[in-house]
Amino acid sequence: MKIYFFRTKNQPIMSWCEGVKGVLLDVTGVLYNSGPTGGAAIEGSIDAIQRLKTSHIPFKLCSNESTETRANFAAKLTKHGFNITSDDIVCPVPAMVDLLKQENLRPHLLVHPDVLPEFASISTENPNCVVMGDCNTHFTYSAMNAAFNTLLSMSPKDRKLYSMGGGKYYKDGDDLVLDVGAYAKALEYACDCKMVVCGKPNKLFYDQAIRLLGVNIEDCVMIGDDIISDVGGAQALGMKGVQVRTGKYRAVFDEPHSEITPDGYVDNLAEAVDLLLSNN
Amino acid sequence: MGRFVPKCVLIDLSGTVHIENSIVAGAARAIDRIRKSGISFRFVTNSSKESVASLFTRLVGLGVNLSPGDLFTSLTATKQYVLRRKCRPMLFLEENAQQDFKDVSVVDPNSVVIGLAPSMFNYEKLTEAFNCLKNAENAELIAINKSRYLQRQHGLVLGGGAFVAALEYSTGLTATVVGKPSRKFFEQSIADFEGVVVEDCIMIGDDVQDDVAGAQAIGMKGILVQTGKYRPGDETKINPAPYLTLPSLVDAIDHVIELHSNGCET
Known about the structure:
heterodimer; A: alpha/beta; Rossmann fold; 2 domains; 6-stranded parallel β-sheet; globular; B: alpha/beta; 4-stranded parallel β-sheet; 35% helix; phosphatase activity (chain A); cytoplasm (chain A); LHPP/HDHD2 (chain A)
């Protein structure tokens, strides 16, 4: 007897959710939209997270946020109504801490004072690298000069500059402000070295998230609103990448996109979770 | 094969003649010697922290014997550029340097002129400059220089070029660099000397990139001095290597005067 597989009209040829064993989620634009007064949860996302949490599919929130600790970030999401703890979140800071430990590095830290406690277990004496995070108002000339002199004191081929995220700018309330990538570029230029980005879409960062999920990279899906960094970045590493039609998604640019073809488009996180749970 | 006899010498100021408010040992007398030798000379500086008038007064105070016409500064060249292009710049400059732009309109800015402005190298001011460039149509980022770093009395500090690189990255624009090592700047600096072409010139400076490589790229000879921001090994950073690397301006000027009398095979 022959078995035929029929697909309904609305199903893509290869459904992205088949065989998914782990899920990575971007936060801003997927769970909630940021805004001047703290932003607001996206409709259906609070319930979607709850359903995912009670399912057997492990997930992590993957964010490039580097100005606050995971605990504070989790508290912010809890305030919006999400059932999230800091263990659910993968941010560049803990990934950076792990990397520093693995490579036996002692950083000169140019990071936001609020995240300094996360580096408490790392020695910063006699530094042999520079680690930058988004410091917003703490990016001062003297702080930049201190980091610069640390780099310059190393021999040119040993200069290690890590940046937690390589963003150019971002929206802070209604204003566009410079992101950490700009300041890292300043040091890169002055010291003639290349920065290593620890954060999306860097492999080191995604690897860390996937290790925490405990699944194979090809069985993972990344769901995000940034088609380049989230979707394209995940696909480049062998994950599936799914684009939500929320957050910074814009139909004219992102569907179809000139370079990246997501494994799927979903209206929002709620639809993504519906598909995942009904297919697994 | 021919003989090289220098007709003109270009001399960098900060790090070569003086470091902040102290003059390099023997520099004043060396400059007097070059004046008496009959070789054309000009001080070419990427200085952007203070007005030309204030720089001049400071140099005279340090014992350098010079007249205003001996100076060619990137600040002056930038002002000429801005007026020519009819830009309305946001002046990312220290107040003292802003005085040189008194007659330039800065209302509703459509460009950014950036120099060494330590009091403005911070999040608020850089974000303001970024938004100015992001919002203006055909915005232009004009760098008085693209200096990586410079020597201060207490060590090295980031130059304006680092923050130019930051703004370039975030805006996607490429800065117009007015001062050294731009070809036009070197050419303008010798335009007053009749019959002098770039091949007749020697540039003396402490910055292996902006002074030496910049000058050599357009056909001048470059002498790297081991004062100011010079660090051991700098002479190996460029290809072709500096024409000469010498301890200080005094040795460099001695060499130029010697060449002027005797020439050398090329």
